[in-house]
Amino acid sequence: MQEKLFSKDFTMVVIGQIISLFGNAAIRFALPLYLLNQTGSAMLYGVVTACAFIPSVLLSPVGGIVADRVNKKNIMVALDFFTAALIVVFIVLKDGVSLIPLLTVTLMLLYGIAGAYQPSVQASIPALVGRGHFMAANSVIQTISSFSSLLGPVIGGILYSAHGLEPVLWVCTICFLASAIMEIFIKIPFEKQVFGGNIWNTVKADFSQSLRFISGEKPVVGKGMLVAFGINLFLSSMLNVGMPYLITEVLDLGNLPANRLYGFAEGALAAGGLCGAACAGLYARRLTMQKAGNLIVACAICVFPMGAALLLCPSGLINYMVMASCCFMIMIFSTIFVIQIMSFVQAETPQNLTGKVIAVIFSVSICAQPLGSALYGALFELAKGRNMRLSCLRVW
Fold it and tell me: Quick one: average pLDDT of 49-61?
């Protein structure tokens, strides 16, 4: 374990995350948008997005168990190489097979890889930095994630609008290959654990151990996990489904390119995450878990101006600006909350359980994403049908 924050190996992890997360943000922006542009259906968009989250839910616990028992560096390298290969396969097949099944399977694999990948990154922090630097290290990782999420949709939106989907896919492939090659040279301290019987018994025992820790030894961790579940179910899902649908299919933006504006709105989300991560790092000593609930209240308050603007203002451009501004503020507050929770979990969890506990938290909170995506997809489709009927009645 290093006493300073930016050791050589932690710095390489950060650089690898910049490259990998940029590619991840760009492709997870471009593929669903491509589906929405081709079909124009919020219901289909919500259902496919919901299906995409299922492997992430299933593989997060496995990723955590593997992260505690296998060298974390090897996991990162293998998954980045596999992601690059997956994108190449999609490029080869996209013009020859049915679009919807291919996109669904590809997104499911991408989200599944992310679910298995992130526990390894988070579990490597206690092995690379000292206990006193946990909040700062999580702030750096979250800053990188937000910065990559800022550039990914913006650059992806510009490339997609100007040249279509394929250039975005090739840029993402290069990103994942570069990240995998860099991660080969990282050294993460690793202590091999003894497997208890066959693989299935080991997985079951490890998962049970992490659940006992969350529910029995540290119930406050379980409460934080339930709050994260609620945020993903009602807030994140609303933004993930509602924002692209409203911007690209509903708002009257005149001659402005809707896809590019959606990319900028995604960039506003990422910029909010970037500011939130920076604030968490700067004010780490002032942030306490006792006041974390105030951040959730602030997120909820930021939703009201979006609804009021949609209800009262006919201008599509003003609605767009209000939406982007509110999303920016929501991401600031939610990012600070996530960093607080993650730093607390890392500080309170034994190192041999870190990957498993983080993976269970990821898995439970991610469970809310497919439920929320399907729910909001159905609600927006229902609202669309109702508005069409009202328009027909007015014309009649």
Answer: 70
Residue 196 belongs to a domain? no
Task: Report H helices in the chain.
Answer: 8-39, 42-69, 72-93, 99-128, 134-163, 165-183, 199-212, 219-231, 237-245, 258-282, 292-312, 316-348, 354-395
Sign of the dihedral through C-alpha 180, 86, 169, 110 = negative
Q: What is the DSSP letter of 195?
A: P
Q: Which domain holds residue 83?
A: 8-187+207-391
Q: Are the CB atoms for 57 and 370 separated by under 8 Å?
A: yes
Amino acid at 138: N
pLDDT score, position 4? 64
193 found inside a domain: no
Q: pLDDT tens, 305-351?
A: 988 988 888 888 898 899 889 989 998 888 888 888 777 777 777 76
Tokens of 319: 């609605």
Query: Is 198 inside any structural domain?
Result: no
DSSP state letters, 114-172: HHHHHHHHHHHHHHHS-GGGHHHHHHHHHHHHHHHHHHHHHHHHHHHHHH-HHHHHHHH
Identity of residue 299: C
* Residues 6 or more apart in contact with residue 185 via CB below 8 angstroms: 12
In a domain, 381, yes or no: yes
- DSSP for 10-26 reads HHHHHHHHHHHHHHHHH
Contacts of 57 (CB under 8 A, 6+ apart): 115, 363, 366, 367, 369, 370
Q: What percent of the chain is predicted at pLDDT more than 90?
A: 4
Token pair of 76 as six digits = 């990162």
Q: What is the largest CA-CA distance in the chain?
A: 74
